[in-house]
């Protein structure tokens, strides 16, 4: 699956998927066939980190 390159659009895309369809970042990445480390790294560059407790990037 193609995901957005822009980190802010990616943030919205990932958080929406987490809210609506997936119970964890791991499940989302596995299902979509994308690298969890790449998502975390890309979103960290713009100041966001994944919260397991809230199941979203903050």
What does this structure look like?
This protein is mainly alpha-helical and 58 residues long. The protein has one domain (7-57). 53% of the residues lie in helices and 7% in strands. It contains three helices and two strands. The chain has helices spanning 7-20, 25-32, 36-44, and strands at 50-51, 56-57. β1 and β2 form a beta hairpin. It starts with 6 loop residues before the first helix and ends with a strand.
Give a nutshell description of this structure.
By secondary structure, this protein is mainly alpha-helical. It has helices at residues 7-20, 25-32, 36-44; strands spanning 50-51, 56-57. A two-stranded antiparallel sheet has the order 1-2.
Number of strands: 2
SS content category: mainly alpha
Mean pLDDT, all residues:
97
Biggest sheet, in brief? 2 strands, antiparallel
For this entry, give a set of tags.
53% helix, globular, two-stranded antiparallel ribbon, mainly alpha
Write the layout of secondary structure elements.
Elements: H1 7-20, H2 25-32, H3 36-44, E1 50-51, E2 56-57
Antiparallel strand pairs: 1-2
């Amino acid at each position: 699956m193609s995901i957005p390159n822009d980190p802010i659009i990616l943030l919205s895309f990932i958080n929406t998927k987490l809210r609506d369809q997936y119970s964890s970042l791991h499940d989302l990445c596995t299902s979509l066939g994308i690298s969890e480390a790449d998502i975390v790294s890309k979103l960290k560059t713009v100041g966001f980190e994944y919260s397991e407790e809230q199941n979203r990037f903050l």
